[in-house]
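Subject: sequence -> structure tokens, single chain

Hey, anyone have a minute? Need the predicted structure for the following. Not urgent.
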Amino acid sequence: MNLSSPPASSASSHPLAPYGWDAGWESEFAPHAERGLLPGRVVRVDRGQCDVVTPGGVVRADTEFVVPRDPMRVVCTGDWAALDPEGGDPRYVRTLLPRRTAFVRSTSSKRSEGQILAANVDHAVVAVSLAVELDLGRIERFLALAWESGAQPLVVLTKADLVADAVGLSYLVQDVETTAPGVPVLPVSALTGDGLDVLAATVAGGTSVLLGQSGAGKSTLANTLIGADVMDVRHNRDVDGKGRHTTTTRNLLVLPGGGVLIDTPGLRGVGLYDAGNGVGQVFAEIEGLAERCRFQDCGHDSEPGCAVLAAIDAGELPERRLESYRKLVRENQWIAAKTDARVRAEIRRDWKRKGAEGRAAMQAKRGRWH
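Reply:
Had a minute. Here:
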């Protein structure tokens, strides 16, 4: 018998089991338990303090001791923490357990820091409203971050009841499926209940995070899944579908059918942050075609023998997809270059090489003219 691994039954009967506690977390926490600390999951963070659900209930704790100067190590909703036992005033979060997954975006700061939106997430639910025109590029951006986080993405098309007919709805679903290879796309309506049973069954296992723009219907979805009006919802503007009210904090909620849900504020900006693998997953068909290009470093611009351009000419690949791919790759490289000197040097070398090739091509043309 492996005495270092706690039996699964002890974890399943633990008071924190509804919040996602399992044998793995119990094993990770064992050294902290020996120090007399308590386990807990962060359900909300607010101005240097957080609400943590512990075996004895929800407590308020200070986050001062958790590397406040490192933006990637700040306490985040969904984190599992070790905190002071009862009796301390104030009580502190002493450390965080290693994260299994983390949904990270870049901040608007000039230092290009990462901001963690949710931790230890199994499903990234991207809510997209059908009350306004689909922004496929934004969906691709969300999915790149979702794949990079380590979570399984799911696109939920909300307000499906606003689409006039079933044929029109099927076309919209197909458009998103083309944009999201390998990702389930689910149209739902909180008004009619269509699709909600499938969504509830999906999020019943593990932790899910709701992501999307303001007005995407995230809070309505959260209320429907929970079966109570725990999130404040107001009517959206008719002009652009944006909510007059948006969630202002990230809240972790237990679902009655099992699983945990993290509702996030509406995201205006979703900048990439070290999301190269995620971009590759979103545009898997382009990266697959690129392997058949004549040149290994093909830029899919005007190079001879480019399999990507050939697919566009043949109508097999939408040109919009290639443009979106180029944009996200450039953005991700730019973010990486600001934080990694080696990447900056590689980009400069690539620019110089392409510049030399361009000058050589121009000189060859001039020679032919003369």
